[in-house]
Amino acid sequence: MTGQPTALITGAGGQDGTLLVAELARRGWRTVAVYGPGTTAPEPPRPESVSLTCDLSDIPAAGQLIDEYAPTHVFHLAAISSVAASWADPVGTAHLNGVLSVALADRCLRQPRPPRFVNASSGEIFAAARRTPQDESTPLAPNSPYGAAKAFAHSMVVVFRARGLWASNAILYNHESPCRPTTFVTRKITSGVAAIAAGSAQRLTLGNLDARRDWGWAPDYVEAMIRIAEHDTPDDFVLATGTARSVRDFVHEAFAAVGITDWRHLVDTSEQFTRPADATALIGDSTHARRTLRWSPTMSFPEIVRAMVRHDLDLIGAGHHDTGAGTNHDDKQEAAL
């Protein structure tokens, strides 16, 4: 492929989208960054790039973006990103996380020059799997509306690949950064710990401290998605560290980052923040990505937690208030794993 590549990125306002737009622009790509309705699209990172808003639940409007901008690559990241939110709106989740992916892949296939299509799949498609760790050959076994919709989209990407579309699934296990909103349990923890350390909060309320996840560093996973897009052959790739840590481990590392070793009296648990069904052994085997893409994680679990806590401490010091911290750091919405 010659000339300047053009990437259409759905979900550009999320953690991965934000990082991906910036990284592709740094590499000289033209980006068409698609943000959700009700948001203000930022200035594009390059003069030839585009930032726009679109209600992607409007399937025809979403498809027209591909017609209009004729991208060489489509990174489909837009989704209801919270498993908890998917239980509250399973129909909307099926539409946005499942049907939209199919519609975009179909529109790509119908282009005169079909773009490469990279779909953000999820480790949640294996949430009820009977074997650990999971790899690309693990049978799909979701246990939530989020996971089921992602499993449908994942399967349809495989179907479209068989039809001739260059289409790959990036099977993303949990990956974190300061770009996470506080509706995610990791950022809820780091912002809450920072608020406690700063004296602006007294306690942190969480759900199941024993829930375990394979947590990585988000910029590493964005790098992997770019490598998938540039690889000669479309395929499916598990992206994970191969090690699971508990929410309790995350809390411990976060308090350690501010010099608090005895934190148990500062943390409450509530069934309000417990999922209807939880995956207890989501660990990814990324051997295929490591061998084929020459990809590997660059940051350890403690380094990830410390980086996020430092960011939230800096926000408090700079007078920002996006942590939502008060007397009790207790969001009314279940924090998403």
TrEMBL record:
One of its GO terms (biological process) is 'de novo' GDP-L-fucose biosynthetic process. It is an enzyme of class 4 (lyase). Its cofactor is NADP(+). Transmembrane segments: none annotated. The keyword Cytoplasm does not apply. GO terms for molecular function: GDP-mannose 4,6-dehydratase activity. InterPro entries: GDP_Man_deHydtase, NAD(P)-bd_dom, NAD(P)-bd_dom_sf. Its EC number is 4.2.1.47. The keyword Repeat does not apply. This is GDP-mannose 4,6-dehydratase. Belongs to the NAD(P)-dependent epimerase/dehydratase family. GDP-mannose 4,6-dehydratase subfamily. Keywords: Lyase. Pfam families: GDP_Man_Dehyd (PF16363). It comes from the Bacteria. Residues 8-308 form the NAD(P)-binding domain. It comes from Gordonia amarae NBRC 15530.
